[in-house]
């Protein structure tokens, strides 16, 4: 009888291992890679859960990351949020920058890594990362998201900014700040200082000796 219960347990264990493996997988983008500007044109994570590329927004196209496994695309990151365009291609340049070329007759920098990036990848956790030759990460979208996804951290001193609307991802009226000085998570109107008089909601975790 014990043998009859072994098979489903093994299947469950294997399924968990496969799930863990996919959480770390990614697809490679090199200096030879390019992406023609068109709605939905993208590079995807290995499982296809997340995509990085062009999506339609008010005023034209934007470059971003989105959750691609639901009927309604959920945007989780947008480059240069206040700008749109109709440029020709997205490519990794020889100087390590990620460029959107031909936007209004000039190139627009999407990412400027701290060191010379030679590859990029879309990870299955929704993070688009860029690497140097030793595989060290030198730039990632998780450092400047407007949406938190599972497994992502809002590190001390980081902020999230609201969007104008569901179809316009330009910076909206509000921001969520993880305050490094007092460990408090606070909502402010955009343009207002980080003080108690300007806030309209907080977690009440100030000065408790831990960070969120």
UniProtKB/TrEMBL annotation:
Its EC number is 2.7.11.1. Residues 1-25 form the signal peptide. SUPFAM superfamilies: alpha-D-mannose-specific plant lectins. It is a single-pass type I membrane protein. It is found in: Membrane. Its main location: membrane. It is an enzyme of class 2 (transferase). Residues 26-143 form the Bulb-type lectin domain. One of its GO terms (biological process) is response to other organism. Keywords: Receptor, Signal. The keyword Metal-binding does not apply. It catalyses: L-seryl-[protein] + ATP = O-phospho-L-seryl-[protein] + ADP + H(+); L-threonyl-[protein] + ATP = O-phospho-L-threonyl-[protein] + ADP + H(+). GO terms for molecular function: protein serine/threonine kinase activity. It comes from the Eukaryota. One of its GO terms (cellular component) is membrane. This is non-specific serine/threonine protein kinase.
